[in-house]
Write a structure and sequence with these properties.
Layout lengths: L2 E4 L5 H12 L3 E6 L3 H13 L4 E5 L5 H15 L4 E4 L14 H29 L2 E6 L3 H4 L5 H21 L4 E8 L12 H10 L8 H12 L10 E4 L5
Parallel strand pairs: 1-2, 1-4, 2-3, 4-5, 5-6, 6-7
Helix pairs in contact: 1-8, 3-4, 4-6
Amino acid sequence: MKTVLITGSARGIGAATAALFADSGYNVVINYNTSEAEASLLCETLRAKGHNAIAVKADVSNRDESEFLFEEAKKAFGGIDVLVNNAGIAQQKLFTDITVQDYDRMFNCNVKSVFNCCQCALPYMIHNKNGRIINISSMWGIVGASCEVHYSASKAAVIGMTKALAREVAPSGITVNCIAPGVIDTPMNKGFDEETINTLKDETPVGRIGSPEEIAKAVLFFAEEGSGFITGQVLGVDGGFI
């Protein structure tokens, strides 16, 4: 049985991905930093359905905590076959109002976390000559968003890392791909008022916002054997927004 580790998987896209992978026969490592109650509930729910799951607290922007997360996963399941780098934050601010602290926090959470977890996962994958890494970026990492410059830049960095790492580890049987979600119904977007949400729906050609489950299905596609000849790619799941 293969094992998936999903960072930031207590809620939203991460939680939906954890549930789908569990239902698909994977051991699941749920990672959280602050959302302990949600992570524990998700873990209990999956176990109640007969699935193998653990929940591990770790701030994946911190190297020591990232290494602890992977050690706990190794103790429970032996190693990580699929890594989903989902943890991240967003912030809306005028560029001239972004502080150095805002910028550093954004890149630590959204980019350094991917670096940390990829380095922790790769030794096991390289040894096995097989592995899947799926990074969650954003459509704003492709086209940029006004008042989200640091967020857009961080998500663009994730795309760059995906493409470069894919070339480096492909000879070891490892694929690295990226999902660029559009506007998704997640806690991250709960801060938008109804008018903004309606505007975003109108700007999305399919006429609605997406669900976490729709992103999870795209992640599962990249994790399965049938996608083994696909690497270094960015899949937009955005309802035609871009």
